[in-house]
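Final report, section 2: Outcomes. Of the targets proposed, Arylsulfatase is the one most frequently requested by collaborating groups, and we therefore present its record in full.
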Amino acid sequence: MKRRDFLSTVTVGSGAMAFARGSAKRPNLVFLLADDMRFDACGFMGNKDVKTPNLDRLADRGVVFDRAYDTTAICMASRAQLMTGKLEFSTGCNFEHGHMSMPIWEESYPMLLRKSGYFTGFAGKFGFDVEPQGKAKGAHVVRPCFDWWGGWMGQGSYEVSANKDAVAWHEKHAGEKEHTTRALGVLGQDFIQQANDSGKPFCLSISFKAPHTPYATDPRYDEVYNGATFAKPENFGPEAAAHLPKQPFAGRPPTKGKGWVKDFDGTSRQYHQMVYGMDQAVGMVMDELEKQGVADNTVIIFTSDNGYFNGSKGFAGKIYAYEEASRAPLVVFDPRHPSAGKKQRVDQLTGNIDIAPTLLDLAGVKVPFGMQGKSMLPMLGNPGHVNHQTLPLINVWGARPAHSLAVVSRDWKYVNWFYGADGYAPTEELYSMQHDRLENRNLATSPEQRRTLDALRKQYDAWLGVWAQEGVPNNGYRKYIRLADRTFDWSSADPELVETMGAIDEAARNGAGKKVNEKKAQKKARKKGMG
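The predicted structure is given below as tokens.
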């Protein structure tokens, strides 16, 4: 089936309505992105043990989306999706797969907004590469695509002066040593001042490194959680994972979770101090908007590139389709909209692929047909508006047995661990999102839920059809059209083809994926029509 028959048409007109109700000026846009921030690691999501005063202030003014999912829960892939509005198989971008092509990057929100007259800036962890252009690669490719640049390509350092590509910092603050999270607040202030003088509407994107490991906390906040204790998640510890199939234990999360299980309070203090530092930087940006007199015409969006287990199920890290890893906090605050200040919440599905079309819609820029995400603006005034009946949750990185494709709806989540070699058998999970958000009871074998299972299987098949129709032809994504097919016969799978899936489970459990000769592996896959 065609995707346009399966998904409803992308919304392109609500931005114009925004202008009709507000001023003739196009709004300024600020997009703030956390790294590895669990959906409930903030006060506005009901966590009474944490302090996030500025994010809570933003949530009180804006609209909170309670069912926001990162359709691939790992930084490189998710950040590519956030900027392009495309699912991973359509960006071609993830670890062990490859860079984003220039034609895809040219239809990202930063590129389209700049072309439409916006003054654009980026600060922080960019997180993925665009394919080299001649001798230019890395930051030398993407930096010229912005009017102002204070970013770096990879993980970077928590000492900002060590991030050599952060040009805006070195130009204005040369020689100054500062914690990177705080420095991003300073850079946000610098940009707003410069952008306000440009006479153009502006778009600022800040991608924080926090609270990603290592937990290099800012000493100025050492007293915030000194001696604090935290309530453990209801599904904390390995015993909460006893019902899971063996596939998720092949990947990194069980190994990474040992520190959280051993010292939950100590690890939580470090993690939430990292979040607190980021919250303070968010406050710096919000206050500068007020100081410059542009707050009333500036839309702010905050979310995270993925969630984090924080000891739930005994895991840490992300990558899986389970709620703790794939859900993220999400707030949209448009001061011009009637929803402002009403503490509105939305329980319908949204995804990271919705960020780019929302930003374009706000600016009155036509959303490209190739974006699979949809503008969230209709949901601001109508919390019951449905953007997505279902969303796919993808993991084709790391340990081969832990590769999975899932489908989440408002009421259900279906997970297919499709790997069937090396003693593994494809395994399904089915969870009620209305009655079991902790995912404690797998109903995939329940006779009472057979109709539900069959319905979710059809949605799964449809999304795999989207993969076939709209996936990139390279970077190792084509093979999954067959490998993830529920009817694929693993007994006849070519061992060389299976090898192209990436890391072996033993290497992944030890925290390092097997080095795969990508060129050789993809050549083999293409010969079989599955590269």
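The domain at 392-527 is CATH 3.30.1120.10 (Arylsulfatase, C-terminal domain).
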